Amino acid sequence: MRPATDALIVIDIQNDFCPGGALAVAEGDTVVPRVNALMDAFSTVILTQDWHPSSHASFAANHPGKAPFDTVELSYGAQTLWPAHCVQGSHGAAFHPDLRTDPAQLVIRKGFRSGIDSYSAFFENDRATPTGLEGYLRNRGITAITLVGLATDFCVAFSALDAARLGFGVTVDLAACRAIDLDGSLANSLRAMRAAGVALED
Ligand code: VGL
Ligand code: ZN
């Protein structure tokens, strides 16, 4: 058992990020058994759920003339455009059917405001609007987190970098993560996480 001050945070293991989904991450579903097993070692387990309205600004379909994986400038800076995914209440937004959800004490939904994306579990993409997760963790006496899930180079990495900046001890279990890898994003995210003092394990 890990110390009571450690939390497992499971990022976005949802149907749309698994093979057959709208924004499928290669082998995304293969992490589920390892994530499920890890849950038994942590007294605090948190799940995140990407949770967008259909009008979401990160969807290419909401930008006439743009295609998925193009970049646009939004009020807070550059935003990659995605195929519509994880629409609130849809099958794609549901957790992978084999993911254990009973051990989770908190499910944090993110990306629910139409004008702003949220890769990180801590802050929306303006890097300033909090999700409330920091307060929850501090209130529970959590000082270290282990991150697993999808995708390594977006929601996992943004969460890891924010957590490190906030002063939490951060480990990313790479064997329980899979990446989108868009234009070198995986290598860039690994470099940034290492530079920020995030422990990368596999
Ligand atoms: C994610 C792109 C868009 C992720 C979420 O979970 O990594 N990536 N929305
Ligand atoms: Zn999303």
- State the end-to-end distance: 19 Å
Report the principal-axis shape. globular
Structure ligands: pyrazine-2-carboxylic acid, zinc ion
Question: Based on DSSP secondary structure assignment, what is the total number of beta strands?
Answer: 8
- Would you identify the regions where 5 or more consecutive residues have pLDDT less than 50? none
Strand order of the largest sheet: 5-2-1-6-7-8
Q: Helix/strand-derived class?
A: alpha/beta
Main beta sheet, described? 6 strands, parallel
Topology-level CATH name:
Rossmann fold
Integer count of domains: 1
Structural topology:
Elements lengths: L5 E6 L20 H7 L5 E7 L20 E4 L2 E4 L25 E5 L22 H7 L4 E7 L1 H14 L3 E10 L6 H11 L3 E3 L1
Parallel strand pairs: 1-2, 1-6, 2-5, 6-7, 7-8
Antiparallel strand pairs: 3-4
Helix pairs in contact: 3-4
Task: Describe this protein's structure.
The protein has 202 residues and is of the alpha/beta class. It has one domain (6-54, 84-200): 3-Layer(aba) Sandwich (Rossmann fold). It is built from four helices and eight strands. The protein has helices spanning 32-38, 133-139, 152-165, 185-195; strands at 6-11, 44-50, 71-74, 77-80, 106-110, 144-150, 169-178, 199-201. The strands form two sheets. It has a six-stranded parallel β-sheet. It has a two-stranded antiparallel ribbon with strand order 3-4. Helix 3 links the parallel strand 6 and strand 7. Helix 3 (152-165) packs parallel to helix 4 (185-195). Keywords: Hydrolase, Metal-binding, Pyridine nucleotide biosynthesis. Residues 7-199 form the Isochorismatase-like domain. Belongs to the isochorismatase family. One of its GO terms (biological process) is pyridine nucleotide biosynthetic process. InterPro entries: Isochorismatase-like_dom (IPR000868), Isochorismatase-like_sf (IPR036380), Isochorismatase_Nicotinamidase (IPR052347).
